[in-house]
Design brief:
Layout (H helix, E strand, L loop, with lengths): L1 H5 L6 H14 L3 H13 L4 H33 L19
Amino acid sequence: MAQGACSAGAIEEKTKELIAMGIAIALRCDACIGFHTKTLIKLGASRQKFEEMLAVTIYMGGGPSLMYATQALDTWNKLTASNPRRKDILPLLNWRPF
């Protein structure tokens, strides 16, 4: 079932992983956040796309999603050897969907 849901079709695999990551954050699944972050990096997702997905997740999920989005960004930083900083999440709070 997972293979069918995640393989490329009308929606490319990377986009499906971005959706899965947003759901993982909304459901507050620590293990899922690590898994999907690693998969997104492997699939070549850019940090910009990752951050935009986090912004949508925060917008739709409110405060709890902000806390888990911070965790997701920390995971991204650790897996890509970026300098993990909590203030990275602050520009996402100014994101406007329209």
